[in-house]
Each structure stands twice: as structure tokens, then as C-alpha cells.
Write a structure and sequence with these properties.
The protein is mainly beta and 173 residues long. It has one helix and twelve strands; from the N terminus they run αββββββββββββ. The strands form four sheets. It has a five-stranded mixed β-sheet with strand order 2-8-7-4-5, with no helix packed on it.
């Protein structure tokens, strides 16, 4: 709830409009979509009635691949998470539907970023001299800092400043 507080303060500071060019809602969401993350949406209901929204991520074949439902009280704010797994292809959109009217009220193109890992490389000391033994470990995480499952076996390689491979490990554990 504390995450919604800044949004609510800004909204109240500007005043709650009676009608926003016919719209009775406001949506706050990222335009970036990443695999294996939670996609956050904040929906504000500016109408005097309780509203239910269906928020969906649509793939390139106009088929909903991930979705969630959200009910927002009159003049209230609601937050929903859409759990995104693997993403294939391009051309994803965020569609928001008014469940009561069964009508599409908003559609936005999403930028899909395929990079799905955060790689941390740790060495045993900050600098080495020629002939020193280099000890290191690599930790592979998802972008939300959850460790990658044990079944994932990355290829690791070390290059010199000229980008020549000095050492490599395939299917490292």
C-alpha cells in the first residue's frame, strides 16, 4: 500500500477530475516487458461505481498469453501483478478491458527485452600479478534477483582486452 501512496498524493494534488475526455480510469504501467518477471500495473477508477478490469498481455498472434483481473472501488486505486514467464517472438501489447461492458478501453505496445539474467562475477582479490592463480565464482540471477534454477548450465569464458578467449567452461555448474 505504501507504493501507491506517492501516486495517490499526486492524483489528489492535481484534483480528481470529473471526466477525463470521457475516460473514467487512469493506468500506470511500464512499457518494458521482461521474461520471468512480475509486470506491475496500477489502475485508478475515477467513476462513482466499482469497476472490474481485465489486464492482459497479448502476443503477436493477438492471443492473450498472460492476464489478471482487478476490481477497483469508486475513486480508488488498485494494483495488480501479471506473472510473465518465457517470451517468444516480438510484438507484445498490453490490453485493458472493462469487464462489465466487455470493451477494450486501452491498448499499448510493449517493448520486449529478452535479456533475462543478471550475472555477478566475484574474484578472490581485486588485482593479480602475472602467474597468480585466479579464483572466482559466478552467480546467475533473474532480473528480480531470484537465483536461476539448478538445471541452467551457462557457458563461461574469459577474454583478454583484445577480446581473444583465454579460458572457457561449457555447461558450467
Amino acid at each position: 500500500m505504501t507504493l501507491l501512496l506517492p501516486f495517490a498524493v499526486l492524483f489528489l494534488a492535481w484534483g480528481v477530475p470529473r471526466d477525463c475526455a470521457g475516460q473514467r480510469y487512469a493506468i500506470l504501467a511500464s512499457r518494458t516487458l521482461r521474461p520471468y518477471t512480475a509486470y506491475d500495473l496500477i489502475v485508478t477508477n475515477i467513476s462513482p461505481a466499482k469497476k472490474t478490469f481485465k489486464c492482459e498481455i497479448v502476443g503477436s498472434k493477438d492471443m492473450a498469453v498472460y492476464w489478471n483481473h482487478l476490481t477497483v472501488n469508486p475513486y480508488g486505486i488498485g494494483k495488480t501483478l501479471i506473472r510473465v514467464q518465457g517470451l517468444e517472438g516480438e510484438g507484445y501489447k498490453l490490453n485493458v478491458w472493462d469487464e462489465e461492458k466487455q470493451s477494450l478501453i486501452n491498448s499499448t505496445e510493449l517493448e520486449c527485452i529478452k535479456q533475462s539474467y543478471l550475472v555477478l562475477f566475484q574474484t578472490d582479490k581485486p588485482a593479480y600479478k602475472p602467474g597468480d592463480r585466479v579464483q572466482f565464482r559466478v552467480v546467475v540471477l533473474y532480473p528480480n534477483t531470484v537465483p536461476v534454477l539448478p538445471g541452467v548450465r551457462p557457458d563461461i569464458f574469459i577474454t583478454d582486452p583484445d577480446r581473444m578467449r583465454m579460458k572457457q567452461w561449457l555447461n558450467a555448474t
